[in-house]
Amino acid sequence: MALPKRRHSKTRRDKRRTHWKLSKPGSSTCPHCGNPKLPHRACPSCGYYKGAEITTPWVK
Ligand SMILES: [Zn+2]
């Protein structure tokens, strides 16, 4: 196995990690009540999904 001859500097390590960030979770708005909700999930505030499907809102 090849080994690195020199240890990379902290600056070089930190420069590499400038691209290293979390991506925001996807979000969409409920067409029924307009509140923000996760995509492909029933709306937590009104319990609607795909128009008229009714589920119990489990988060208040
Ligand atoms: Zn809603």
What is the helix content? 10-25%
Strands in their spatial order, largest beta sheet: 1-2
List of distinct ligands in this structure:
zinc ion
- What's the Cα radius of gyration? 22 Å
Distance between the termini: 56 Å
Number of strands: 4
Low-pLDDT runs of 5+ residues are: none
* Strand residues, percent: 5-15%
Shape: rod-shaped
Secondary-structure element series: HEEEE
Sheet having the most strands: 2 strands, antiparallel
Mean pLDDT: 84
Count of discrete alpha- or pi-helical segments spanning 4 or more residues: 1
Structural class: alpha+beta
Overview of the molecule:
With 60 residues, the chain is α+β, with helices and mostly antiparallel strands. It has a domain at 27-60. Helix content is 12%, strand content 13%. It has one helix and four strands; from the N terminus they run H-E-E-E-E. It has one helix at residues 10-16, and strands at residues 28-29, 36-37, 48-49, 53-54. Strands 1-2 form a two-stranded antiparallel sheet. It has a two-stranded antiparallel sheet with strand order 3-4. Strand 3 (48-49) and strand 4 form a beta hairpin. The radius of gyration is 22 Å and the shape is rod-shaped. The protein starts with 9 loop residues before the first helix and ends in a 6-residue tail after the last strand. The mean pLDDT is 84. Bound molecules: zinc ion. Residues 30, 32-33, 35, 43, 45-46, 48 line the site of zinc ion (ZN). The site of zinc ion (ZN) has 8 residues, from loops.
